[in-house]
Specification:
Blueprint (H helix, E strand, L loop, with lengths): L2 H28 L30 H37 L1 H16 L2 H11 L4 H9 L4 H15 L2 H8 L4 H37 L11 H13 L4 H28 L10
Helix pairs in contact: 1-2, 1-10, 2-3, 2-5, 2-6, 2-8, 2-9, 4-5, 5-8, 6-8, 8-9, 8-10, 9-10
């Protein structure tokens, strides 16, 4: 991993730590319930009293964005974990079982990948409107295919290695191969998959909430704040859009850069052979 990549990783992690501190500490230290309204202070521009201004209900956006970040990050982490676990299981079972099981699972993965993720997510969330678990499942069940393919490819490569062949000749079953050989081999890919799926999960949740299919309005997330900003923006309340959108963009870029740098650290590219 080069020095430039290390600096990128340090900067990305520093940004993420600052975002996490802001999301966790501000609602706790502020002592202000982000759900309380004060219409006398509605649509106040950013000032010394209101750092990020107020929304249409007079609520502090400084506190609301912190609470929204916390919600969006929790949903994104849970969704990325669900997607990664599902992808690891499908990819491992497909490779270890082989035969018709492998073919059926891969055709199922192709079908799931061909469906529009956003449309499928809307269908899942619409069945359980305003349910956080439904939002997590709608993201997790639509982003596992790439993880499954990576794990399957790694598992097929693992089956050809000498120590795995020796374990099979010694009588090791598929459960033993999965727990003792496959999982340690795909653990770095699984960790990287969780990190790289986080930006997708954050944007997916924000899109669902913006369209009105995600979290309920009383539970702030970056998507619900952006949806609420539409009315204020027409009345000149630019801050109701700029600050939530800014945190959304900065957070997802920082996570993406950290994931890319982490992939280079855990899985450095193999040196190419120089032909003689």
């Amino acid at each position: 991993m080069g020095e430039r990549a290390r600096r990128r990783l340090v900067v990305a992690v520093a940004v993420l730590v600052a975002v996490l501190i802001y999301a966790l500490v501000v609602p706790w230290l502020g002592g202000v319930d982000d759900r309380l309204t004060d219409f006398a202070e509605a649509r106040r521009a950013p000032s010394a009293q209101w750092w990020f201004g107020t929304d249409a209900a007079g609520r502090s956006l400084f506190v609301r964005i912190a609470a929204a970040l916390r919600t969006s990050l929790v949903v994104a982490v849970c969704a990325a974990a669900v997607s990664t676990v599902l992808g690891v299981l499908v990819g491992a079972v497909s490779a270890l079982a082989g035969g018709w099981v492998d073919r059926v699972m891969m055709r199922f993965a192709d079908t799931a990948n061909a469906l529009p993720h956003l449309l499928l997510g809307i269908v899942i969330v619409a069945l359980f409107r305003g349910n956080t678990v439904a939002v997590v499942l709608s993201i997790g069940l639509t982003h596992w295919v790439q993880v499954a393919r990576i794990v399957r490819a790694e598992s097929l490569s693992l089956r050809e290695r000498d120590y795995v062949a020796a374990a099979v000749l010694a009588g090791a079953g598929r459960t033993h191969l999965f727990t003792r050989h496959l999982l340690p081999a795909v653990a770095p890919q699984a960790l990287i998959a969780v990190v790289l799926l986080l930006p997708h999960a954050i944007w997916h949740e924000s899109t669902l909430s913006f369209l009105g299919f995600g979290l309920p309005p009383h539970e702030p997330s970056l998507g619900t704040l952006l949806e609420e900003a539409r009315g204020s923006l027409l009345l000149g309340g630019w801050w109701t859009l700029v600050f939530p959108a800014g945190f959304l963009v900065v957070t997802t870029i920082a996570v993406a850069v950290a994931g890319s740098s982490l992939r280079g650290l855990l899985m450095p590219p193999k040196p190419s052979r120089i032909p003689r």
